[in-house]
């Protein structure tokens, strides 16, 4: 298994955790899902994130699904989310998944952090807890965590800790943050890989600002792969034309508390997972909402046919 680094690029899909209607993990769908992501061109996966319903898993379940996905992924890099309220839990899970062959771990800041000093101290403690040889992804997602990290504070953290090699950029609005970080690198600060989330709704702009790719769970990973490749080749108009075809569905899944239900429904409709079930608590799509998603998927296919 290759480790992530500051040079990592491409699309690391945030993977769902498939469940049976009973609430048990759907092991057969898990293997099928991993195959699907890589068949669609993903460069790596990120598991046990917010989309993966990690807080709903027990420690033993988290380890079990990690082992299964790592085995199925072969030599492809898999990042494991290890965010937790306490450092001890982060340290324990990190050691376990790295021993199994994970490519790195992702850590989001707890919502209790309020000042720049607290944020800087927190990541210093994380690095000390997990070992300085473990590659870390810093997840910057203030819409979910409530923690706002400035460009300057991120810069300080990156300068202090060489093993924080990647930023999962999910600030919104946050395009200026990408520009700030890349400008600082041009002045001599070390490079950090930047992969972007937020369902990919700003992906063309993020790539133009200097992002290295995407790290999100939109249920059409092939779109993110193609947009990134076209952007890297300078074919920006083609990238935007393709992106525009998917935008209505991406917009629909941005509804608060409903996004995961939409993604799992789409994955089930595409035959990737057997069930759209979430482990409780979780919001299900109403019959009317499901019909709306069906319409968006049908319209997407028509727009893609017109682009071919």
Characterization of the model:
The protein has an eight-stranded parallel β-barrel, surrounded by five helices. The two termini are 36 Å apart. It has helices spanning 27-39, 59-73, 87-100, 116-130, 142-145, 151-160, 175-186, 203-209, 221-232, 236-252, 259-269, 287-307; strands at 10-14, 44-47, 78-81, 104-107, 136-140, 164-169, 193-196, 213-214. The protein is built from twelve helices and eight strands. It is 49% helix and 11% strand. The protein is an alpha/beta fold and 308 residues long. It has one domain (10-235): Aldolase class I (TIM Barrel, Alpha-Beta Barrel). The model has no long low-confidence stretch (mean pLDDT 96).
Quick recap:
With about 300 residues, this protein is α/β, with parallel strands linked by helices. The protein has twelve helices and eight strands.
């Amino acid at each position: 298994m290759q480790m992530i680094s500051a040079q990592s690029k491409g699309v690391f899909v945030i993977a769902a955790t498939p469940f049976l209607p009973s609430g048990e993990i759907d092991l057969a769908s898990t293997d099928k899902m991993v195959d699907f992501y890589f068949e669609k061109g993903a460069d790596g996966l990120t598991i046990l994130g917010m989309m993966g319903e990690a807080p709903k898993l027990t420690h033993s379940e988290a380890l079990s699904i990690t082992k299964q996905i790592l085995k199925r992924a072969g030599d492809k890099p898999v990042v494991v989310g290890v965010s937790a309220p306490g450092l001890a839990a982060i340290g324990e899970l990190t050691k376990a998944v790295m021993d199994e062959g994970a490519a790195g771990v992702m850590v989001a800041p707890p919502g209790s952090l309020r000042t720049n000093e607290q944020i800087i101290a927190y990541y210093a403690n994380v690095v000390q807890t997990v070992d300085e040889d473990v590659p870390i992804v810093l997840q910057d997602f203030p819409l979910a965590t409530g923690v706002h990290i400035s460009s300057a504070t991120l810069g300080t953290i990156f300068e202090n800790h060489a093993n924080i090699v990647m930023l999962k950029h999910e600030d919104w609005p946050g395009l200026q943050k990408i520009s700030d970080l890349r400008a600082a690198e041009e002045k001599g600060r070390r490079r950090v890989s930047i992969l972007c989330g937020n369902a990919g709704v700003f992906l063309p702009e993020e790539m133009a600002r200097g992002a290295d790719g995407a790290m999100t769970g939109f249920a059409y990973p092939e779109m993110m792969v193609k947009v990134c490749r076209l952007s890297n080749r300078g074919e920006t108009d083609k990238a935007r034309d393709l992106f525009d075809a998917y935008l209505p569905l991406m917009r629909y899944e941005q509804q608060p508390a409903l996004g995961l239900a939409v993604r799992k429904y789409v994955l089930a409709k595409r035959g990737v997972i057997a069930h759209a079930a979430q482990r409780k608590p979780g919001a299900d799509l109403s019959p009317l909402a499901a019909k709306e998603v069906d319409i968006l998927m049908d319209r997407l296919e028509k727009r893609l046919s017109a682009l071919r």
